């Protein structure tokens, strides 16, 4: 049978390119888990994805009720779950003040980390029940959360501190809206959320890989400077960022190429190792990359996991 893969945020950018790359092989049915049904339908159509190769299902990661509803709907569809790709994200670099999810968590960490945390915790059961030969849970990471890289050292740097803001609920009322308890900074909140994504992947690996055989992986697909992720940025930045990445840092990668990379992590028989953070070299070959000290801190991963369980109502 075909593999069945759920991709969050498949209505644009990397998620859409990955959906297209997988659907084109004829070996995958893609469940596009998106917050805007019509946008996803238009995107799938204009990308030329054949109708029989995808299903769109509503998911708003900025609402935990919506996450639970999605899981119910997915189960009711009767489709198996062989691979889950947590790809959606918001990036709010120019926001002056914090905005919040339905439950009152700062929007970047609430969407990118907490929404995906609940989703993947609930769907772990469905993945475990799949009879597919290679089951995978993939969380898209980023170089920007990795302070052991050049890009990760552009201020404001990711830093989860002692997690006091997260423990307080990130609501900007009786706690800070930032994980480390500091002043709101949209660019930092995004980077912090990506560190949480990478920590979560490793904690999944430690807790569940042996028992379930599921491959847990993260990746940095390269800088896809053309996606909607930068839609909130100032116009000058949006104009200069793609050529800067192309000619100066040479980290630029097209949406198509990045989609092929993520599709490899979904389906390539040679990428089954669990607990790995994948990157690609200049010749576009995959390799196991090193995470920064904070993004590979096992003690911090356990703490983020425990606090996140409480925030999403699992503990
Ligand atoms: P895009 O903005 O193009 O895609 C993000 C997707 O997330 C969109 O489909 C968006 O939906 C969706 N999304 C946002 N909020 C929600 C929500 N509340 N519920 C459901 N879906 C939501 O950006 P990219 O393709 O660049 O980003 C994809 C991933 O790649 C992210 O995890 C990002 O961190 C990562 N990444 C990107 C890099 C880059 O250079 N662009 C580099 C490294 C990592 P909608 O279409 O409705 O807006």
Tell me what you see in this structure:
This protein is α/β, with parallel strands linked by helices and 315 residues long. Helices cover 42% and strands 13% of the residues. The protein is built from nine helices and eight strands. The protein has helices at residues 13-24, 37-46, 64-77, 107-129, 164-167, 186-212, 235-249, 255-267, 298-311, and strands at 3-8, 28-34, 54-58, 83-86, 136-140, 215-219, 276-280, 286-289. The protein has an eight-stranded mixed sheet with strand order 3-2-1-4-5-6-7-8, sandwiched between helices. β1, α1 and β2 form a beta-alpha-beta unit. α4 (107-129) runs parallel beside α6 and α6 (186-212) packs across α9. The longest helix has 27 residues, at 186-212. 48% of the residues are buried. NADPH dihydro-nicotinamide-adenine-dinucleotide phosphate (NDP) binds at residues 8-9, 11-15, 34-36, 39, 59-62, 87-90, 111, 140, 142, 220, 223-225, 227-229.
Strand content: 5-15%
Number of helices: 9
From the spread of the alpha carbons, the general shape counts as: globular
Number of separate strands: 8
Give the helix/strand class: alpha/beta
Which regions have little confidence, pLDDT < 50, spanning 5+ residues?
none
Distance between the termini: 36 Å
Kindly provide the radius of gyration, computed on alpha-carbon positions and rounded to a whole number of angstroms: 18 Å
If you average the pLDDT, what whole number results? 93
Main β-sheet description: 8 strands, mixed
Helix share bin: 40-55%
The set of bound ligands, ions and cofactors reads: NADPH dihydro-nicotinamide-adenine-dinucleotide phosphate
Placed side by side, the strands forming the largest sheet appear as 3-2-1-4-5-6-7-8
- H and E string: EHEHEHEHEHHEHHEEH
């Amino acid at each position: 049978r075909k593999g069945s893969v759920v991709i969050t945020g498949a209505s644009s950018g990397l998620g859409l390119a990955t959906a297209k790359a997988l659907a084109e092989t004829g070996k995958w049915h893609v469940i596009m888990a998106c917050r805007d049904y019509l946008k996803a339908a238009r995107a799938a159509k204009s990308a030329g994805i054949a109708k029989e190769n995808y299903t769109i299902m509503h998911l708003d990661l900025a609402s935990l009720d919506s996450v639970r509803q999605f899981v119910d709907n997915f189960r009711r569809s009767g489709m198996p779950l062989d691979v889950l790709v947590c790809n959606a994200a918001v990036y709010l670099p120019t926001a002056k003040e914090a905005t919040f999810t339905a439950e009152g968590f700062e929007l970047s960490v609430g969407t990118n980390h907490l929404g995906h945390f609940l989703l993947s915790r609930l769907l772990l059961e469905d993945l475990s029940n799949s009879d597919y030969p290679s089951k995978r849970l993939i969380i898209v990471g980023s170089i920007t959360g990795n302070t052991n890289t050049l890009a990760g050292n552009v201020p404001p740097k990711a830093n989860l501190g002692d997690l006091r803001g997260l423990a307080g609920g990130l609501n900007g009322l009786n706690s800070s809206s930032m994980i480390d308890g500091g002043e709101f900074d949209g660019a930092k909140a995004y980077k912090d959320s990506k560190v949480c994504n990478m920590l979560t992947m490793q904690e999944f690996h430690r807790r569940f890989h042996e028992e379930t055989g599921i491959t847990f992986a993260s990746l940095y697909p390269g800088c896809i400077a053309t996606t909607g992720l930068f839609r909130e940025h100032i116009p000058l930045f949006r104009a200069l960022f793609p050529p800067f990445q192309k000619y100066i840092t040479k980290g630029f990668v097209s949406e198509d190429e990045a989609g092929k990379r993520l599709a490899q992590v979904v389906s390539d028989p040679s990428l089954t190792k669990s607990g790995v953070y994948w990157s690609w070299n200049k010749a576009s070959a995959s390799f196991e990359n090193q995470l920064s000290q904070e993004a590979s801190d096992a003690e911090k991963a356990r703490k983020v996991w425990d606090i996140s369980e409480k925030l999403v109502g699992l503990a």
